[in-house]
Design goal:
The complex is a heterodimer. By secondary structure, chain A is α+β, with helices and mostly antiparallel strands. Chain A is built from twelve helices and 15 strands. In chain A, helix 2 (about 30-40) packs antiparallel against helix 3, helix 5 (about 145-155) crosses helix 6 and helix 10 (about 310-325) packs parallel to helix 11. Chain B has helices at about 20-30, 55-65, 80-85, 100-115, 160-170, 190-200, 215-225, 265-270, 285-295, and strands at about 10-15, 35-40, 45-50, 50-55, 70, 90-95, 120, 125-130, 135, 150-155, 175-180, 205-210, 235-240, 275-280. The chains are: A alpha+beta, B alpha/beta. Chains A and B meet through helix 4, helix 8 and strand 14 of A and helix 4 and helix 5 of B.
Chain lengths: ~375, ~300
């Protein structure tokens, strides 16, 4: 679960990491009031989970109340359906650093990553000047040691007043990484101000999905999803991604779904939605098909090859859901795996054509989507 | 022949009295796996499929010689169960659970490495040597998928494995050993770490890798091929060629971030190392045949 910047910064403050003076606002009025209170110039930072906000013009700098109002209006009414703006003081920056704590999957250890040249170009820097990215791996059982933090800080910069503050920030960010079960805790940029203060300019905190049972502080509201459908699917426990093509995908198994997505693209078709009908969801045919039918798609394509997710149960579910929901578009079924013979019988009896070859099923779905239009 | 497990491997099942543990224990036995005993705290004295259950792994290994353990244990108890197996001297462990906390998985992998143990999983169907034995959950009764043969298969996926393996068998081949390393970002064992086992296995003549976008496991295989650790022909099928960047599709490990982990990059690396990459599952069989014929010529 990726947190919003304002949430990450709340966590930073609790851990003792300094952040710029800021107020959270959710309307043009409250943005104006916050800007007056913070003083000018200040930054209006759109709170969204997608990256690249700066380049999209979603972090304007404003220097009057009138400007704050007009920019806030633009942001709230814009295409990104922004709900909250963090109004933040403009910091007098001397240097921008990069700092993060994450997991190195290959080495199976934690790693602190930092650079004296932070900012939006960090990924490019990593490719072009990898020697400017410093790393300090650490054993996750033993934890990050104080000597490692000090050594890293002196590799990063000569000993100054700021170095000691940076050591504190590294330690605090490591503690956040640990106590929040983070995949990634990142500060980019980490400012050193003209007066020598070390301040987190931005904040990214991604909590491991598999640890959410013990990280209950953050409720997953509608704000965390790109569309209403994704949110509703998530409430039903169904992984779902929204696209805008012709074929509603109802597949079982992450790898198979991703592959069917590719095959549809190869055949020149397009995907309306990506829906995971496997694993614990294989008995949820009704809910899954309901989500598919709410799309403006032309065909529903069901592809499964399950072991635990039984084909016969899924076929019964599909037949029942299609009937009860009065499905108004063709449904192509390629349901295989445990119980596939019974599944085929069930489908045939209900007037479906059971298929056994994924690539043929994809071709059929694409042809149907291109051809007939709505039956 | 096979790798990791065969007819003689003596297997302990942790979590054997649960629904899944008991169900798959039965299938493992029916396929010919030597299931020796099970472990469920509080259930010592019970019998499941005529095998004794013990309170702990320690108590089980006191009474039986055990070569390998498979865990049907919920994700939040997995770290404890794996460490218990390692502490009792077991060096081959398969953990099925989907949802093991990331930080705990890192600890599991580090502990296994330190002890010289191999942990396969989590988020996997396990390991199967068709016609011999399995530790995991495979529909081996579907003969058009799980036929014995000479192709080693490594996979990050579940249902896609059934799909691609069916294509390998349709092309007239069979499987020596199939290892599901799992779909998590930090697997207990990585593709490249399985390669020396396949290299040493006389029965395995070629390898099929079922990968996907994200991570670097496919690239590591390419490195192993170039450094001579793997000299057998390799055919890969990789899902997610057209996946939109930055979206997490499917497995937690399947995300492209910071320009790394793209399928294009993986194809380039594998082809540069002499491997072949199938565009579609149905092409895997032909590519295997072509590579094997090239070798013979």
């Amino acid at each position: 679960m990726k947190l919003f910047e304002y949430q990450a910064k709340e966590v930073f403050v609790q851990a003792g990491i300094a952040v710029p003076k800021a107020l959270l606002a959710d309307s043009v009025e409250s943005v104006a009031a916050a800007a007056e209170s913070i003083g000018y110039p200040c930054m209006l930072k759109s709170q969204m989970l997608m990256g690249g906000r700066g380049n999209k013009g979603l972090i304007p700098r404003v220097s009057s109340q009138a400007q704050a109002r007009s920019e806030a209006q633009r942001l709230f009414r814009g295409e990104y359906s922004i709900k909250k703006i963090l109004v933040e003081e403009a910091v007098d920056i001397q240097q921008e650093l990069y700092l993060s704590v994450t997991v190195d999957p290959l080495a199976a250890e934690g790693v602190v990553i930092c650079s004296a040249e932070g900012g939006v170009e960090i990924e490019q820097l990593a490719v072009e000047n990898p020697e400017k990215i410093l790393t300090e791996p650490f054993d996750m059982v033993r934890g990050l040691q104080s000597f490692q933090v000090k050594d890293l800080s002196y590799r990063l910069m000569p000993s100054t007043e700021a170095t000691k503050q940076i050591q504190k920030v590294i330690t605090a960010l490591y503690q956040i990484f640990t106590s929040y079960d983070a995949e990634l805790a990142e500060i980019n940029p980490l400012f050193i101000t003209a007066s020598g203060q070390v301040i987190a300019g931005d904040g990214k905190l991604m909590i491991d999905e598999n640890s959410m049972h013990r990280q209950k502080r953050f409720e997953r509201t509608r704000d965390y999803y790109e569309s209403d459908m994704e949110f509703e699917a998530a409430q039903a426990g169904i992984p779902y991604l929204q696209f805008d093509g012709d074929i509603s995908l109802m597949c079982a198994g992450a790898g198979l779904t991703t592959t069917v997505y590719d095959l549809i693209n190869y055949e020149g078709g397009s995907i309306a939605n990506y829906l995971e009908f496997g694993g614990p969801n294989y008995r949820k045919a009704y809910e899954a098909m309901e989500l598919c039918l709410r799309n403006d798609s032309k065909v529903i394509l069901v592809v499964t090859f399950g072991t635990i997710a039984r084909a016969d149960v899924m076929a019964e579910g599909i037949v029942d859901a299609a009937l009860r929901l009065k499905a108004d578009r063709p449904i192509v079924t390629c349901i295989r795996g445990t119980g596939e013979q019974e599944a085929a019988q069930t489908l045939k009896a209900a007037g479906f054509e059971p298929m056994f070859d994924t690539e043929e099923a994809v071709r059929k779905a694409v042809a149907l989507a291109k051809g007939a239009g709505r039956p | 022949m096979s790798i990791f497990l065969d007819r003689d491997t003596r297997v302990l099942i942790q979590g054997m009295t649960g629904n899944e543990g008991s169900f798959w224990a039965q299938h493992m036995i029916e396929l010919g796996t030597q299931v020796i005993a099970g472990v469920t705290p509080g259930k010592e004295g019970e019998l499941i499929h005529d095998r004794p259950i013990y309170h702990s792994v320690r108590r089980a290994v006191r009474n039986h010689d055990v070569d390998a353990a498979i865990l049907f244990v919920p994700p939040r108890f997995t770290r404890d169960a794996v460490l218990e197996a390692i502490d009792s001297g077991i060096r081959k462990i398969v953990t099925i659970a989907d949802g093991i906390p990331l930080h705990e998985m890192v600890e599991i992998r580090a502990s296994a490495k330190a002890a010289g143990a191999m942990v396969v999983g989590g988020n996997t169907s396990g390991v199967i040597s068709p016609g011999e034995a399995m530790m995991g959950m495979f529909p081996y009764w579907i003969e058009r998928v799980y036929a014995p043969g000479k192709i080693g298969i490594m996979t990050r996926s579940g249902s896609l494995t059934n799909e691609v393996t069916a294509m390998v068998v349709r092309a007239g081949f069979g499987v020596s050993t199939l290892v599901g390393v799992g779909g998590d970002p930090v697997p207990g064992t990585r593709f490249a770490e399985m390669l020396p086992l396949y290299e040493a296995d006389k029965k395995t003549e070629a390898l099929v890798i079922i990968g996907e976008l994200g991570g670097s496991m496919e690239e590591e295989v390419a490195v192993a091929m170039q450094s001579g650790i793997c000299t057998k022909p390799v055919v890969a099928f990789l899902g997610g060629r057209t996946a939109p960047k930055g979206k997490r599709m499917g497995h937690a490990g399947a995300i492209v971030s910071g320009g790394k982990g793209t399928v294009e990059g993986k194809i380039k690396a594998l082809e540069a190392a002499g491997g072949r990459v199938a565009g579609r599952p149905s092409e895997v069989g032909e590519l295997l045949r072509a590579l094997l014929e090239e070798r013979e010529a």
